[in-house]
């Protein structure tokens, strides 16, 4: 539990105790360690400092006020410490503010510190809801990554490596079984349009489906309309979400229009087709009578939130 709340691995906690005397937890009659709120708070501060470049040997012996002073020197505010306060007695799950983690992640991204990104995301994907992880963390990071690549800060290989890391952590909630027992009687398929490789935004839609307890199948990016329509029929899906898509800008309006026309023509008339992302469609040419166009992820979120009622 101390490991899950602090984001520090079990083996790391033991090493910090044994080698550096960072903590001296109380042991019960059976010899099991009992971590106090103060112990876990120190673990969190030590972890954050190590992520920012300090070695554990330099900071293990410092007090909590001294650790906070170091973080303040690095730009962390007093309010941010109060925002991450928690109570182990009344609530065993840490309440975390994504706005406090995003600057660290953006700093690590611009510095190409994949280890820092991975460790921070490893903590957030457990502590945040799928919705908050998608909208408050993945989407902003995806935009920052795109900017870094387009401005020349990142090479193509660096952009690909970072994107793959984000996808790995996205998969924790995307493919992990959800705890909600009574899923809504809606069968959703989430798919990317052929030619569109932006699966971070697409994965965020899958996370939102899971957040609202919907039964969904995530196919990933770059799916042909034939494969998508066959999957819809086989799984008897009643909602298909295509996108969010950048294909409209990348491959042209005609490609986008043709894909939606052909897909719509193969779907059962009762199937709802949702086109997510900015698009310009000639609606008169699309056979589907149940077409929904949602231009932003916020609109997709609102749409899915109504589906769970």
TrEMBL record:
Entry annotated with the keyword Signal: no
HTH merR-type domain ranges (all copies): 1-65
Pfam families: MerR_1
InterPro entries per the UniProt record, alphabetical: Cobalamin-bd_sf, DNA-bd_dom_put_sf, MerR-type_HTH_dom, MerR_fam
UniProt cross-references to Gene3D superfamilies, sorted A to Z: 1.10.1660.10, Cobalamin-binding domain
Domain of life (superkingdom): Bacteria
UniProt entry keywords in alphabetical sequence: DNA-binding, Repressor, Transcription, Transcription regulation
Protein name: MerR family transcriptional regulator
Organism: Bacteriovorax antarcticus
């Amino acid at each position: 539990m101390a490991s899950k709340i602090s984001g520090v691995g079990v083996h790391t906690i033991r090493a910090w105790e044994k080698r550096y005397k960072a903590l001296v937890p109380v042991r019960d009659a059976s010899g099991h360690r009992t971590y106090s709120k103060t112990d876990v708070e120190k673990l969190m501060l030590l972890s954050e400092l190590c992520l920012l470049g300090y070695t554990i040997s330099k900071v293990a012996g410092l007090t909590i006020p001294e650790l906070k002073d170091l973080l303040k020197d690095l730009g962390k505010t007093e309010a941010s410490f109060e925002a991450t306060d928690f109570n182990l007695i009344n609530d065993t799950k840490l309440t975390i503010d994504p706005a406090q983690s995003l600057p660290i992640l953006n700093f690590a991204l611009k510095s190409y510190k994949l280890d820092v990104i991975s460790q921070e995301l490893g903590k957030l994907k457990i502590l945040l809801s799928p919705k908050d992880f998608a909208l408050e963390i993945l989407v902003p990071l995806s935009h920052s990554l795109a900017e870094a690549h387009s401005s020349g800060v990142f090479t193509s290989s660096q952009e690909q490596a970072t994107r793959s890391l984000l996808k790995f952590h996205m998969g924790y909630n995307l493919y992990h079984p959800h705890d909600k027992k009574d899923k809504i009687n809606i069968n959703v398929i989430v798919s990317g349009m052929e030619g569109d490789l932006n699966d971070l935004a697409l994965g965020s839609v899958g996370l939102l489906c899971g957040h609202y307890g919907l039964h969904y199948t995530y196919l990933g990016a770059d799916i042909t309309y034939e494969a998508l329509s066959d999957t819809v029929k086989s799984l008897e899906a009643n909602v298909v979400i295509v996108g969010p898509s950048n294909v409209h800008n990348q491959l042209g309006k005609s490609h986008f229009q043709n894909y939606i026309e052909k897909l719509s023509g193969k779907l059962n008339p009762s199937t709802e087709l949702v086109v997510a992302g900015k698009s310009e469609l000639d609606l008169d040419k699309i056979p589907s009578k149940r077409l929904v166009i949602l231009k932003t992820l916020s609109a997709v979120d609102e749409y899915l939130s109504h589906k769970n009622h």
